[in-house]
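Recap quiz, item 2
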Amino acid sequence: MERYYQPEIETASREKIKALQDERLVKQVKHIWDNVPYYRKKMEEKGVTPDDIKGTEDLHKLPFVTKADLREAYPYGLLAKPLKDCVRIHSTSGTTGKRVVAFYTQNDIDLWEDCCARALVAAGATDEDVCHVAYGYGLFTGGSGLHGGSHKVGCLTLPLSSGNTERQIMFIKDLQSTILCCTPSYAAYIGETMKEMGLTPDQIPLKAGIFGAEAWSEEMRQDIQNTLGIKAYDIYGLTELSGPGVSFECSAQSGMHINEDHFIAEIIDPETGEVLPEGEKGELVFTSITKEAFPLLRYRTRDICMLSSEPCSCGRTFIKMCKPMGRSDDMLIIRGVNVFPSQIETVLLNQGYSANYQIIVDRVKNTDTLDVQVEMTPEMFTDNVGEINRRQKELVEGLRSMLGISAKVTLVAPKSIVRSEGKAVRVIDKRKI
Amino acid sequence: MSIKQISVFVENKPGAMCAMTAVLAENNIDMRALSLAETADFGIVRIIVDNVYTATTVLKDAGYIHSVTSVLGVRIPNVPGGVNKVLNILTEADVNVEYMYAFLGKKEKNHAYMIFRVQDDASATAALMAQGITTLNQDDIETF
């Protein structure tokens, strides 16, 4: 028997969902027009006023918002509520120069936690469950989102955050955790550690897991399901929109239901910005229609995706999105952290290396690896091995502080990096996702 | 007196040394000495050649990164304790040796040759001269 956290909306008729979206969109556009000068200017430039927006069919008239807007308006430029009405801030897992901050009112937090609660219930959670949250807590939204959702469902919540894997496993066993929430790569790592400790899936009480914040393949799902003896569910979200729970998987495990009472999804052609018909592959764009403090209209996620409104066996009527199939910009998500090749280039140039580099991303034992190959230059070469090693170490440190994750640096011969039509191939992503 | 050593950056992978020495072979460069300092990813090949100008030109044309360093070429008595004697002199003179390697020298019965990389060539040379140890100059290398 499929269970729902909020059945009246999760299984509502398409007409009802559309009517709700129309009403909320009109109200949201007005709210933004009245309170966000940055947005109002963008709308004026496009010749749109709130009067032009009568429902979702007018959505395409509104200008897009991009990460560049979010950075330009940092920190308060897109805030739509006085700070005294806000109760929390979260920030993207990004990095120096690329950080984006999002604000929440208490109502925003409540609705976000509802979305996470829906995902938990879809994964089978009830108030009898012990929900083990091994997402990072802090500025990152993963920990807080699932933590709040778990409270709403009434699960006994274990706020472990990530790290100290043996202790995680001890708690899973001793405190009988039944639902695990973390990144898929960490779930796989927990599984491997359990194996090393000599534990088999039947010795641990876990029955389901909610895994998101990074891309993962069907093969990885099978792997995790087998090593942990659970059903593994995908969850999608962005800090810019709230956090995890923008969409979530149900028992059908075939796409993620978008919480359409809070978010309107569109698929556009990333080149022209034109809206594409359902079923076509393009860039995923979201409009948050209930967010008060940090509402976004037509936010370009850069995720390449497809939508489907095929009826789902679970009974939910929200449309589904597939797992993101790639990016329309050059952003890489490595170990859950956003990495832009331009950041790596900045560090290289700052330290006197050339811009001839190649980023090789791979997944070894379910953990992402980042190898930066840098061509040696006459300026950086010396006869002294110790000196070259010292500079190499400095580069590793520089990359760590810029990216927030560690990278391996390999010095290679000049012109050894493959160039296609004169342009170096910057990124080689060997991960099979 | 010092001589010129060419240090070349090569990757630590199969065929890298072979490709580099091929460039020298094709251009008829004769190597007098060779040493390799390696790390996990790369190595520095240090060579003493008969024609520094040609060698550096052809290496550069072939895309190799290199630098030229001055080192000491030291003539060492070919007897037990020969190297130790030279090192004693350098130790007395408080000269730090960064690295050293053997030299394929003249076919002499009584002497061997070694390359020394030190901080201060002049004071090292002076200390060796004072004890009757000869260092080579660039002409010696070219006409070896």
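Strands of chain B lie at 3-11, 31-38, 42-49, 66-77, 97-103, 111-118.
The domain at 71-142 of chain B is CATH 3.30.70.260 (Alpha-Beta Plaits).
End of item.
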